[in-house]
UniProtKB/TrEMBL annotation:
GO molecular function: glutathione hydrolase activity; leukotriene C4 gamma-glutamyl transferase activity
Name of protein: Glutathione hydrolase proenzyme
Reaction equations catalysed: an S-substituted glutathione + H2O = an S-substituted L-cysteinylglycine + L-glutamate; glutathione + H2O = L-cysteinylglycine + L-glutamate; an N-terminal (5-L-glutamyl)-[peptide] + an alpha-amino acid = 5-L-glutamyl amino acid + an N-terminal L-alpha-aminoacyl-[peptide]
Annotated pathway: Sulfur metabolism; glutathione metabolism
NCBIfam families (alphabetical): g_glut_trans
Subunit description: This enzyme consists of two polypeptide chains, which are synthesized in precursor form from a single polypeptide.
Length: 497
């Protein structure tokens, strides 16, 4: 079996490949890539956010690790509302109240301790070198930095790193991050304790207190990762291994189970019928997701019932062969909108161990702020909670209580790092960046390979569609629809965005 590393940033991918060449396994490489992305892809790669890891071990075992951010212990359901109960724009995204307790450092550390073969110092050395010595910015890096250069200018400790003497960085220039190098060295020496019960936590809590936030040292000391059993479902001769709540693997499996009753391979990629049943399956599964799913420590997730043969048959019976179902006819309650800016990476080693990781700080560069001279951005993941349950939102729909803010709770997430097995061996390692489109992107990468015979690169490059129940429209990437297909679908009652 060939080893493989796929990430959004070539420096990070090279770090992973180097670790594999040194004899490390897929977990060693995944941890090294996670830290490298925190340096070379600071919009999204992080040590100030959280995420999920799905693992398939060469011995056949499948495991899920949840290291998503949690609500601070002082958080309340009305945190983002004013005295009149109205949601205050920007409070959950641009202030320290939006910062959840980060999980990335403990997640990477926990994975390495349990399933890695190398030391934390060994796997972190490449990231520390990239931070200290710097890396040459490519046009793509500069484009991402430019999206928030005005915000960087408002914070001297951010501007000192992410602006070049007050000016935006240019392609070809070398970005050095000595403060981040120092923070990473503390973690390499002291493990996650340095982060959660040491100088890094103290710096974050002090900055939070200074700027009206509610993070406490107890939040950091109490933070725990969760090991769980992934959800597994069969699709066209493969087994899809995908995350349980608070992630959305159930939604991926629900859509696949609905689609399993249709001859997609015969209908073909992006055909009228394929697009129709895919849109309907996504519509129903998203309605269920937003109604029922949440942090399992707080909410009962009826996964067996949602994925049961009876429920899938009921949904299929509601899909008309020739017309779109208006979303108003599909019961559900609307969840919160999610940030679009995660990053995903996949690792496979020669022994057959596979690791699929999606992690995030929510928005590009998260809340856009750093604590003192720690050198890394913090998340604004608290925005992924429902800000005001029980009240109709702009679609006239009541947002559910399953995803309301509670102390220590994890917000529902669309991140679905997944692994597809065939005859018990790794067939695909997949996942996607994005917000709620992560679910459809990941799902369609599977359909493109399994049903439509594409190779992995074609499957990822192929234009995609997305339907999330509300708004009642199909979102399509350029090149997905032909004019004839679009006209046929519009006649069935679909609108496009």
């Amino acid at each position: 079996m060939h080893a493989m590393v796929g990430s959004t940033q070539h420096y990070a991918t090279e770090v992973g490949l180097d670790i594999l060449k040194q004899g490390g396994n897929a977990v060693d490489a995944a941890v090294a890539v996670g830290y490298a992305l925190a340096v070379v892809h600071p919009c999204c790669g992080n040590i100030g956010g959280g995420g999920f890891m799905t693992l398939h071990l060469a011995n056949g075992k499948n495991i899920f690790l949840d290291f998503r951010e949690r609500a601070p212990l002082a958080a309340t359901p009305t945190l983002f509302q004013d005295a009149q109960g109205n949601v205050v724009p920007g409070r959950s995204t641009k202030t320290w109240l939006g910062v959840g307790v980060p999980g990335s450092v403990m997640g990477l550390d926990a994975a390495l301790k349990k399933y890695g073969t190398m030391s934390l110092k060994q796997v972190m050395a490449p990231a520390i070198k990239l931070a200290r010595d710097g890396f040459v910015l490519q046009p793509g890096d500069v484009k991402i930095l430019d999206t928030r250069s005005k915000d960087f200018a408002a914070h001297p400790n951010v501007a000192a790193i992410f602006l070049n003497h007050g000016q935006p960085w240019k392609a070809g220039e070398r970005l050095k991050q000595p403060e981040l190098a120092h923070t990473l060295e503390l973690i390499a020496q002291g493990g996650s304790k340095a982060y959660y019960d040491g100088p890094i936590a103290r710096a974050i809590v002090a900055a939070s207190a200074q700027h009206g936030g509610i993070l406490s040292l107890k939040d950091f000391r109490d933070y725990k990762v969760v090991w769980a059993k992934p959800i597994e479902c069969r699709y066209q001769g493969t087994t899809v291994v995908t995350p349980p709540p608070p992630s959305s693997g159930e939604t991926v499996c629900e859509i696949l189970r609905i689609l399993d009753g249709y001859p997609l391979a015969q209908w073909g990629y992006a055909s009228v019928l394929t697009t129709h049943v895919l849109a309907e399956a996504e519509r129903h599964a998203f309605a269920d997701r937003n109604t029922y799913l949440g942090d399992p420590a707080f909410v009962h997730n009826p996964i067996k019932r949602l994925l049961s043969t009876a429920n899938i048959a009921r949904i299929r019976s509601q899909i008309q062969p020739d017309r779109a179902t208006p979303s108003s006819e599909v019961k559900g309650s609307l969840g919160a909108a999610e940030g679009m800016h995660t990053t995903h990476y996949s690792v496979l080693d020669a022994k057959g161990n596979a690791v699929s990781v999606t992690y995030s700080i929510n928005y590009l560069f998260g809340v856009g702020m750093m604590a003192g001279n720690t050198g890394f951005f913090l998340n604004n993941t608290m925005d992924d909670f429902t800000s005001k349950p029980g009240v109709p939102n702009s679609f006239g729909l009541v947002q559910g209580h399953v995803n309301e803010i509670q102390p220590g709770k994890i917000p529902l997430s669309s991140m679905v790092p997944s692994i597809v097995l065939k005859h018990g061996k790794v067939f695909m390692v997949t996942g996607s960046p994005g917000g709620s489109t992560i679910i459809s992107s990941t799902l369609e990468s599977i359909l493109n390979v399994v049903d439509f015979g594409m190779n992995m690169q074609q499957a990822v490059d192929a234009p995609r569609m997305h339907m999330q129940w509300y708004p009642d429209a199909i979102f399509v990437e350029p090149g997905y629809l032909t004019p004839t297909t679009q006209a046929a679908l519009q006649n069935m009652g679909y609108t496009f965005k």
